[in-house]
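Suppose a colleague, Dr. K., hands you the sequence of a protein chain of 316 amino acids and asks what its three-dimensional shape might be. Before reaching for any lab equipment, you can write down a predicted structure in token form. Begin with the sequence itself:
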Amino acid sequence: MRLFCSDEAFAEYGRVWQELAPGLEHVGLPEGRRLEPEEIERIDIAAFTGDLWVSGRSPSFFKVVLQAPNLQWLHLFSAGTDAPVFHQIAANGVRVTNSAGAAATPIAHSVIMQMLALCRNARPWAIDQTNKVWQPRQNIDVEGRRMAIVGLGAIGAEVARLAAHFGVRVTGVRRTPRGDEPCDTWPTSRLHELLPNVHDLVLTAPLTDETRGLIGARELALLPQGAHVINVGRGPVIDETALIAALQSGHLGGAALDVFETEPLPADNPLWEMPNVIITPHSSGNTDIAIERTLQIFTDNLARYVRGEPLVNEIT
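The predicted structure, expressed as tokens, is then:
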């Protein structure tokens, strides 16, 4: 069995993986040269780990994956599987698993950080500090605000749990409430009824046919004057042009965005220059603990794969 993954991941977990799969061989992603065709042909399984994403080696990794004729299984460090490359790989008959839930805690922490930052003038004061301007401002109370979380998977549920500790009234939104949510939860069909009462709209939903463009000009207009938008789900869940217009008009008080319609965010996008917008480069879940948890999920699945058992988080 031949595993294609980063040298860093194999250095940390290779011995454990070889104990689970005796004879397991490693195919790395070399610096400065391309893998030879015979090396690519040897690949049976592949693990896309967080270090590859952070270091910008994702394109090189997936170029090899798409060329591997004998690849049987691909594991992803992320939860989202909406990128076209994933569908192309699955269409080739490759089993695909993800790491849903592994980064839920750090992403939820990022959401709380952004909620506080937007209410506490973090971005304007950072600009003032750069310009050496002493400018007192009125802060916004977090306690008593109402937050709507669109998407109540592992990330949304953890955001709901944490936000409640700050005195925030949380309402979840999902297609069909199950009754076991950590907060009051409404169906997506009632979103328009909820939005006029929402101070913080948090988007944690994955990108699907139902969620693409879910938040557009109409939905943003329904939010009260000065509301905040935080998006850590997927960029296309919100109409970016409509969002920019709502921010420029002053209807929205601010936004914190980790995901965008086009990534990397083009340099000419007006969001970069807005003093009421906080931008992070799709990195809200990039922590050592999250990377460790994705490797643990892959390790568990490798044991299952060797034993011929069903894989956890398999995308069908």
